[in-house]
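[Q] Does anyone have a clean structure-token version of this?
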Amino acid sequence: MSILKLTPSCKDYIWGGRRLIEEFGKDFSGDVLAETWEISCHKDGLSTISNGDYAGKTLLNYIQEKGTQCLGTNASPFEYFPILVKLIDAKDYLSIQVHPDDSYALEHEHQYGKTEMWYVVDAKEGAFLYYGFSKSVSKEELKERIQNNTLLEVLNKVPVKKGDTFFIEPGTIHAIGKDILIAEIQQNSNVTYRVYDYGRVDANGNGRELHIDKAVDVINRKQYVESQKSDSHLANCKYFTVDKMILDGTYTEKVTNDSFVGLLFVEGNGSILDSDTNLDFKKGDSFFIPANEETYTIKGTGVALKITLPSPC
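[A] Here you go.
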């Protein structure tokens, strides 16, 4: 089977912290590590294989050499590797933003849109995020509030704690708040429209680019309230399925020809093995297991997020 352990691509955005370096052992020499793209075939941040015959090659290289059968039959609707898995350390507030759906993104950005979900790995007491509107707003009110910096007054402010889950459809205005560490599973896309960024500037005094017109085009302006999920089946959409695995001892599962398995360990430590591979894991580690008819075993304790592709509709 050959389980692949992955080394992520690292991103040093201005709102990031150092938890991914100091607590999760990410190898990064910069002062700030905002995101690690753990399971990624996106051109803006490819993850790299760290073990076995393909060590040093990217996950994209592996898939190109092995062929799409290693992704499983459920990958047939997609033109390329369909998901992107991240760890996000928000020491400061992220921008208020929105993602377009596939049709808008393909027309305007020449790539697919972004459906995503968040699993709260950790959060300080009092942490919150923004998720949709607290009331419905007209397009005119939305534009006016963006212009006069009162947008936050009509956003849905949601307190968060460890283990909370949020599913974010395209068009949902949102932002991760400060002092939150999140695992994000999303479509393989890097399209983000920023609406508001707290007036922040870089070392040269320049603010980050905003995308007001496109954001207004795609934002769902209705009042939006999504219930949080706490069971083990965290998300299921046409792009990905995410399950929470509580590990305590030995867990064995068969991988089918339907889908590869992506694993992101968010707590604990132990080992993961199959017939010819035996690898240690700790929190923050990620693995790719190709689609096949073999089994793998996890020994240890902790929490893992398992990502697979659903059956096509």
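[Q] Thanks! Anything notable?
[A] DSSP finds five helices and 19 strands in the chain.
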